[in-house]
Every structure is written in C-alpha cells, then in structure tokens.
Amino acid sequence: MLYKKKFPLVIFLIPGLILIFLFLYWPFIENIKNSFYDITNFVKMPGKEWTFIGVENYKKLLTDSKLRIAFANSIKMMGLAVVFQVGIALGLAIFVSWLRRGENFFRTIYFFPIVISATAIGLIFKLFYNYSGGMLNQFLEVIGKDPVNWLAPGRAFTMIAIPIIWSYVGFYFVILLTGLNAIPEELYEAAKVDGCSKVKQVLYVTLPMMRGVFCTCIILAVTGALKVFDLPWVIAPKGAPQGRTHFLGTLMYEQTFTIGNVDYGSAIGFVIVIFGLLVSLAVNELLKPDANL
Amino acid sequence: MKKKAKWLALFLTIVLALSFVACSSKNGSKSDNSRNTGVTPADKKNPVTLTTVSMFGGTDPNAPNYQAIISQFMKDYSYITIEDDSQVSDQDWKTRIAADFAVGNEPDVIQYFIDANASDVLAADKFVTIDEIRAEYPDYAKDTLDSALKAAANPDGIERAVPTTGYWEGLYCNKDLFKKYGLELPTTWDNLLQAIATFKENNIIPIAVSLNNVPHYWVEALILSAAGSEGYTQVPETVPQDWCTGLAMIKTLRDMEAFPKDTDTIDNDFAGELFKSKRAAMKLDGSWFLSSIPDKQNTVITAVPVMPGGKAKEGEIIGGISSGFYITKKAWEDPDKRDAAVKFVMANTNKEGVTKYWNGSGQAAVSADPIKDMTPLAISGFEYSNKASVTLLPIDSRISQEAYNTLIAGIVDISTGAKTPEDLLKEVLDINAKQ
C-alpha cells in the first residue's frame, strides 16, 4: 500500500533535502555572495562591514597567470585521465576478463590503491621524488648517474600526473570489468563461429556493448580531474615549483586558506563550479550516454 | 519458522529488560556506596574535560615538553582530562584556528600569537584579560616577569596572554664544515659569499631553505639588513627602496646557487634535515630550532651579516615574544572549567614549566635559574641573544595577515625574477592599506 500513499515518501526525502540545502546549496550561495565583497579577516570585526567590490575579483581572474596555469593543468589532467586512467583500465579489464581464473586476485590488486588515502600516496611519491636522498635518485646513484630534480619546473606536472593516474586506474578497472562480465557469452561464441579474432571481438562486440559503461567512466574521469587536490597538494604544495602545478582546487585552497584572500578564493570556487557544469554538459552532449545509437 | 521468530523476539526482549535492570541497579549501588562513605557529590570535583590547542605539536622541539607537562598535570588533577589538538604553526593552521573562533568552536585554552598574527582571533573578542583572571586568582602568572607580560600584550595594549619564552632568529652554521673547507664563519658579507662559492664547488648546499614553504626568516633578515632598524620597523605606505633592495638579494643568492636545487618544492622540515645531516652548511631559523640539532658541539649561531650598502647596525636582531597562553571566555564562564583552565595555564607558565620550554634557548619569561652543563650550541645561542643591542619584532607583527601572506607567497617569483620586488611590495602594501 505504501506506493499508493506518496506522503510517507516525502517525509523520508525531506531530511536529505534539508541537509543538502544546509551543507551544500546555502554555503554555495554564501560563497557567491562573498566573492563580491572585500573580506579582510576570517572573523567579521564588531561593527565592521565587508566592503562591496562588485566584480573586482572576477576582473582579477581574467589577468591572473596562476589561474591560467591552473585551468590549463586541469584541462590537461582531464585528457590524461580519459586516455590513461580509462584507457589503461580498459586494457587491463579486457585482459583479466580473458583469464579462466584469478579474476578476483587481479581485481583486488588493481583496486588496492583506491583504498589507500591520497595523502599517503602523495607522501610515498614525495619520498620517491626527493632530490636529496629520494628513492629514484638513489637508484640513479647506484647506476652511477647524476641525481635529477624530478620536480623541476619542466617536468613537475608529469611527475604529479603519474600518481594521480595510477591511483585511480583500479577504480575504472573494476567498473569496466563488471561491464565486461555483463556481456552475454553467446555473443562471443557467435563471433567465434563467424571467425572473429580476439581483436575483432573486442572491436565489434566488447566496445559497442560497453558504450554506456564507457561513457560513465569518461564522465567520472573528466569530473574527477576537476576535483584533483590532495595528491598535488601533498607532493608539491602551493603549485610548487613556481606555481607550475596548480590545479583549480589547489589554487582556490592556497588563496583562501594559505594567503587568507577569502573573497578571491570564493570567486575561484564559483568559477570551478561553473566550469565543472559546462564540462559535464559538454561531455554529455558529445558522448550521449543514454542515446541508442 | 514464525514460532521460532516469536520465541527469539521474546528472548531478546527479556535480555534487554534484564540488562536495563542490571544497569539501573549498578547505578543505584554506586550512589549507595557514596552514601555509606559519607562523600556527597558536592565534596567531589566534577570531572572536567579541557580542550587545549598549542603550537607545541608535531615536530616542534617543545612538543615533548608540552606533552610531559600535560601528563603530569593529568596525574596531579585526576578529575581533569586534557583533549589536546596541538600542531606546528603555519598559515593553514592559523586560518583553521581563526575559523574555529569565528564559528564558536574555540578551545578552552590556547597558546597562540600575541601580535598582528592574532588579529582574526582577537577580533572575535573571546579571550579573558589577565586583570579579570587576577581579580579571582591573584596568583595567576605570578612567576612571569612584568616586562614579559607587557611584551606579550596584544596590539590594543591589553594583556591577555601569559608567555613562556621569547625567541630570536639567527644563522645556524655547521662549524665543522667551515673548518673542513678552510672558511671563516659568515660574520661579514664577503665571508658569506666566499662560503657559498666554496660549498657549492664541494657539493655542499650552502644555505638550507624552502622558499616555497618558509622563506620568512630570509625575508625578515634581508629587509632588516638593507633598511636598518628604523626602516624595518616602519609600516610603509609607499614601496620603500630599501625593502626592494633587501628582497632583490634573494634573487642574487638564488642565482649564486646558494639554495638547494629543490628549494621550490621541499618543506621547511626537510630543509632542517639537510642542515642537521650536514648536507647543508647554513640555515637561518628561530631559537626553537636549536634543541632539535643533534650535533651540539659543532654548530654555532651568528647574525646574518649586513649586505653591502645595508643600513642595519651590528647587534640588531629579530626576535621577541610572539605567543602566550590564553584562556577563552567559553572556559571562564563555565564554573567547572574556569579553575581547571587557570591551573593548566599556570602549569605551563610557572617557573618549572617555563624552564622546561626555555632550556637555555631564547629568552625565558620568568627569572629562570641558569642551566647547568649547557652545550656549546646552547652557549652560542645564549651569547648571540645577549650580544643583541636591539631585538626587533618581525614584519608580520605589524602588517595584516593577508598582506604578509601575499609577501611570502611571492618570494619564489622574486627569487626567479618572475616578479620584481617593487611589484610584489606594491601589492602587499595595497592589501595592508585595506585592513
């Protein structure tokens, strides 16, 4: 009888609605408001009002070279996430699906980095990359080579992108493997009867059947790349070296919490949300995950 | 199946009911016991949980002393539990503390800055003044020197914090490395340049510093060196040329490869390790760094030499009192916590507590007895601070946090030439003017 009475459903939905409004939408609206004021302290001085500065922060965004770097890095990261995170995960998932046994073993092994906190992974890679006494330079020393500054401005982005990609491959691997297992075995058998090689089976059976899962993974990878924060912050905080490894999230954090420029940080936060929405819409439009092609 | 489920439900109900009875009879027996022993609830101290925050956390050399005082305190007052959330002070931590005060999540006792660094927190008006506390507890901060209490007054002149120690900033040198390469200690600018060139040739990092994390000491020292005490202590409205000269020296030093190759990415702790492990010859740091140095025989402290054309005079050093223990109104207005908070601050700031923190480095806020068997390094620090003719508070005690943070965030760009000192200082002074 529950499905006929809608009122109890509404009762159950309201607490969630209140929580999401209180902890997401309200702060978001406050954040937009803050970006139009000059916030000089975290604490509002008694009797002192914030000065309204209009779109000053947004004008500053247009000329901020660090923001340009952060945008470029975030977009590069999206591309890398799609190509390498989803790509490597797809390759691994296909190989594992061909195995007669041991699927669970590989599933566990590849998924493992997901359960390690990003901070711990960041710390591990920081120790790998250290110029003085880091693991990579110790290897180089053993083979008689000069140490390398792995986080030098020219290569820091790549060195930070590696652990970001590595740590999430397992996540997409599990999703894709689940999708692969859902493909009926009869299709492969029919393809075999028609004389399809393994490669052709992947191209003409696996990939078309996986389209929906694929699109989901790409959307997750693209939006996930926008949220990158913890790993780069641990390996090279504040966009180090020389602001070259700033992502939108790290730049917003630095401005707000390290420098204390709350209003400018709020403006960056607002831009991140708008950019995220636009990217999600564009990806949806491009991939059309629900379309029946 | 249905019958089984019914019996199981009945069984669980009985178990639950019995456990309730057992619990209530336990409470009852407890109150009976207290009646039998003649102890009334009024005679007992209510259990108190005190939330505390300090900068003596993580890798801070005073962290073990602070923890030892907490442990002893909880032994002495078994009814008080300390829930401590101490961390090493950095900008992120300061911001978190300010946010805690803004939303009413402040601790009961906090060891925090006393100068402009505390402006956010002071603006919340959540500290009790020493006068108010002394009206009820006349012995509060009785061991602390009056001069130290005055020096720890907030920018509005009101005394709220009880300090433990003062500090100084000095150039730590690995004397054995200087000796090994036949170098003079960097008491003059020429000696400093000579040392940088020689160490670089011998694969020793001349100066351990993290420009991305803690360039503060070099910023302060070079501006003081260029501007002298008068120019250094002003709060300028227009960009002072001397400050630009001082900051420009960071680029000169970087171009000479005086800093580690990865100075843009390492943190201050790692820079400290480079110095302690003798991979670096010099490190500019505060008096708190002294106790963490393992080689106390071969490390000495000198002043940063005055740069050519610099206006600083010999004996002008950076230091002073920068922090102290505060009691918040939240604790003061709670009858149970008030006494506990006062006791806790006194345990940290009495002669015994301060002597632990001081241990011969920096300046004690009480009249501490001389430390016996001081190490050569401690003697060097002691002599360095005693020789000082003027001790000047750093720039961050005079300008707004956002302005100072902007200055620090721009130092890497200054060192690479991506930004000129003039442009950075203009930005900094504009921000400061808004406050």
Automatic annotation (TrEMBL), chain A:
It is a multi-pass membrane protein. One of its GO terms (biological process) is transmembrane transport. InterPro entries: ABC_transporter_permease (IPR051393), MetI-like (IPR000515), MetI-like_sf (IPR035906). Residues 71-283 form the ABC transmembrane type-1 domain. The chain crosses the membrane at residues 7-28, 77-98, 110-129, 156-181, 202-226, 267-287. One of its GO terms (cellular component) is plasma membrane. SUPFAM superfamilies: MetI-like. It is found in: Cell membrane. Its main location: membrane. Keywords: Cell membrane, Membrane, Transmembrane, Transmembrane helix, Transport. It holds the Pfam family BPD_transp_1. Belongs to the binding-protein-dependent transport system permease family. This is Raffinose/stachyose/melibiose transport system permease protein.
TrEMBL record, chain B:
Coiled coil: none annotated. It comes from the Bacteria. Residues 25-45 are annotated as: Disordered. Residues 25-39 have a biased composition (Polar residues). InterPro entries: Bact_solute-bd_prot1, SBP. Keywords: Cell membrane, Lipoprotein, Membrane, Palmitate, Signal. Residues 1-22 form the signal peptide. PANTHER family: ARABINOSE-BINDING PROTEIN-RELATED, POLYGALACTURONAN_RHAMNOGALACTURONAN-BINDING PROTEIN YTCQ. This is Raffinose/stachyose/melibiose transport system substrate-binding protein.
